[in-house]
Amino acid sequence: MTDDRAAIAAGLLPGDDLHRSLLCSIVDTARAIFRAQAASVFLLDAEADELVFEAVSGEGEESLVGRRFLSSTGIAGWVLVTGQSLVLDDVSADPRFASQAAESTGYVPKAIMAVPLESGDRTLGVLEVLDRPSGERFTMAESDLLGMFAAQAAIALDLLERSRSARRLLADGAGDVSPLTRLAAAVESAEGDDREAALALLRAVEQVISRLG
Amino acid sequence: MPVVLHADDSDALPAHAVAGADALTLPGARQWPAAVDREWAFGGATGSGTTVCVVDSGVDAGHPFVGAVARSVAIRIEGSETHVDEDEIGDVCGHGTACAGIIRSVAPECELVSVRVLGEGFVGSGPALIEGLRWAVEQGFDVINMSLSTTKERFVADLHALTDAAYFRRSLIVASAHNMPVRSYPWRFASVVSVASHDIDDPLAYLRNPDPPVEFYARGVEVDVAWSDGSTLRASGNSFATPHISGICALIRSKHPELTPPEVKTLLGLTATNAEAAG
Fold first, then answer.
1. What's the mean pLDDT when you consider all of chain B?
2. What band does B9 get if pLDDT is binned at 50, 70 and 90?
3. How many domains is chain A built from?
4. What is the pLDDT, as a whole number, of residue B177?
């Protein structure tokens, strides 16, 4: 999608809140499916080249969202860069991991399933599921299932990211694009005769402009 | 000698060239027995004399599972320049150390080399992966372990050229198959040995897959592996199956240094657990 089209679409897209609710629902569902202590989604902020906690369910829910980490180190960084999933038990035995987790969240997990969030050839982030209260191990079959679930989460993240970048474009003063965006949003919200009249007018404008070209 | 991605025709023989008399005596060509088995393939081998390169997150030398690492370098990209620095940091994740430990457990006397392609951020990680692999291919290592892949189509042409260059230079690339339904590389290329996981609790059990692109399955479930700062943990994933095959390839190459990458792959297929069971 070109930047212009993205900007116009942003006038029609719902705000960040709906996307955020969707992400929260994804981590809640992932946690429920795998009967886990916690589940989280990290999103890559390509500009800062950092991983950002976007949604967390369970342990760390309050303190984690918005926290940032190096994008190519640690378990999440490895999964992000390599696109391969991992199932790890006893990660708390790794002193570096344990101290970093304790420092940032106060919660040191034992078991992690981590899968990349990829939409087409765009790498968006990482989905992690942590610990089971029973201590029961995660299996490879569950990792495959998490991978399928991650494909769905990646679509949600992709939408969120595109919407955000389009909105940023608008906020930066997208020049000639702004009137078009406002127009598109206005037509979208119009009803009945008003909508018909607006569409007829736009079709007429379209005809005039096409003759100019 | 640098890897040339686009062949210089002036150095190449024309397609109709007639082979010289020395081509009639090909070293090693007549050494295959009528039927190969594991005893012939790598019986008694330790990996001695071979070098296995781990392209990953770095390796913590001296971890009890890993032992000595002959050389560790880190890839750093600045603009259009690639720097291959001696690695002062070590493993930035734990994963490379896990792979090195698995290779060491299968081929205890092989020499290990680490190329760290992670740690400089995600954004430059694609070029770092390409340049790390390029460096490894230029060094002519016997086996190159790549427990990683990329989904980015823009790197496919370079990766393809590099894996072909490795194939012709007798470096065997062993690469993890993606365990999600996405297109990723380099494991899909025929010039590499691609590996996914089975859950048999035997480091020397490997299966040939009659339905590629994944060609082999190796132990990748609940493997006790080395990790950062001297720790160990239990890990599952194709990325842990791959170094098992790398280790077995090191054994084969230490016993049969004359074999080319396609011959090693054929030997792996002929000695696979499911092939041997079938008789």
1. 91
2. very low
3. 2
4. 94
Q: How far apart are the first and last CA of chain B?
A: 44
Instruction: Return the closest-CA partner of residue A6 out of A174, A198, A136.
Output: A174
Same domain? For A194 and A145 the reply is no
CA B205, B211, B214, B215 dihedral sign is positive
Distance (Å, rounded) from C-alpha B100 to C-alpha B244? 10
In whole angstroms, what is the distance from residue B221 CA to residue A192 CA? Answer: 61
What is the Cα A33 distance to its own chain's centre? Answer: 20
pLDDT on residue B26: 67
Do both A81 and A117 map to the same domain?
Answer: yes
- Write down the pLDDT at residue A153: 81
Parse chain B into domains and list their residue ranges: 36-277
Q: Domain of residue A157: give its range.
A: 3-171
Residue A28 in contact with partner chain B when CB distance is under 8 A: no
B-interface mutation test, from A45, A72, A100, A110, most B Cβ less than 10 A away: A72
Tens-place pLDDT, residues B40-70: 999 999 999 999 999 999 999 989 999 999 9
Whole-structure pTM value: 0.85
A111 shares a domain with A33: yes
For chain B positions 190-209, those within 8 Å of chain A (CB to CB) are 197, 199
Please give the structure tokens belonging to residue B147: 């427990």
- Residues paired with A89 in a beta bridge: B234
For residue A170, is pLDDT > 50? yes
* Closest among B165, B168, B58 to B114, alpha carbons compared: B58
Q: Within 13 Å, how many C-alpha atoms sit on residue B228's CB side?
A: 23
Q: What is the CATH number of domain B36-277?
A: 3.40.50.200
The answer to whether the Cβ–Cβ distance between A144 and B125 falls below 8 Å is: no
User: Within 10 A of B266 (CB to CB), how many other CB atoms are there?
Assistant: 14
